[in-house]
Amino acid sequence: MNTKTVIIIDDEPAARQNLKDVIEGFDDLTIIGEASDGKSAIEQIIIKRPDLVFLDIEMPELNGFDVAKATQDINYQLIFMTAYEHYALKAFDTKAIDYLVKPARPELIVKSINKITTQHTHYHAHKSTERLILSDHAAQKVIEFDHINYIESIGRYRRVHLTQSGTHMHNTATIISEKTLDGFEAQLPDSQFYRLHRSYIINAKRLIELRYQARKHFVRLAGTDTDIPVSRSFVSILKARIAHHD
């Protein structure tokens, strides 16, 4: 049995205890640390290198998003725990794989933990497919899914907009491709990439705002000020996915 190590981060002792009560029911999970503030949380994650972190958002001095950003290069799985639903959109821009609103019922915590086990197995079974190969003039570029911000259709071509880290890696902010949006849609996981308009596919992890303006819906992604339109047929689907974050 492969045991996963866990760190619980929350400034409320009762919330930490509730999590401990559920986690201790799993034979393959071991709690190796707790923290009640952001600074201690960062130190523990860096030193102890956990497999899984339960992270509160509103904490003294440094909040949960600060902790996630400071430890983004460390390989662990993240579940946000917060009393506030309005943070859900911002959580898309982190490595979080789930988002629970406190007080979370034990069965919902169990569901999140089981989701981690499923995703862990899926990741190792399909790791080689988590990237695209795109021709850029004379070269072929290997683009990781997480380095894609969004894809837009422009006439005969598609423009792939990269994230900041993707831009740094490939020395370009965009890549022009002749692949159709249907072709991209077939290769990209629909759990992460949404075809929210006939001309756009977005990386849902980068989603930070859904806005209604001038009788139309738009989304905004991290790292860009571009207003990306959402088709009427997709608005309700997008809202449901944001609400459930499944």
Q: Output the CATH homologous superfamily of the largest domain.
A: Response regulator
Globally, the shape reads: globular
Give the topology string: H per helix, E per strand: EHEHEHEHEHEEEEHEHEEEEEH
Beta strand %? 25-35%
Percent of residues in helices: 25-40%
Structural class: alpha/beta
Task: Please state the second-level CATH architecture of the largest domain.
Answer: 3-Layer(aba) Sandwich
CATH class of the largest domain: Alpha Beta
Unreliable parts: 121-128
**CATH fold naming of the largest domain:** Rossmann fold
Describe this structure in words.
The chain has 246 residues and is α/β, with parallel strands linked by helices. It has 2 domains: 4-125, Rossmann fold (3-Layer(aba) Sandwich), CATH 3.40.50.2300; 129-244, LytTr DNA-binding domain (OB fold (Dihydrolipoamide Acetyltransferase, E2P), Beta Barrel). The protein has 8 helices and 15 strands. It has helices spanning 13-23, 38-48, 64-70, 88-91, 106-125, 164-170, 181-187, 232-244, and strands at residues 4-9, 29-35, 52-56, 77-82, 96-101, 131-136, 139-144, 148-154, 157-162, 174-177, 193-197, 200-203, 207-213, 216-221, 228-230. The chain has a 5-stranded parallel beta sheet with strand order 2-1-3-4-5, sandwiched between helices. A 5-stranded antiparallel beta sheet has the order 10-9-8-12-11. The protein has a 3-stranded antiparallel beta sheet with strand order 13-14-15. Helix 4 links the parallel strand 4 (77-82) and strand 5. The longest helix has 20 residues, at 106-125. Residues 121-128 have low confidence and may be disordered.
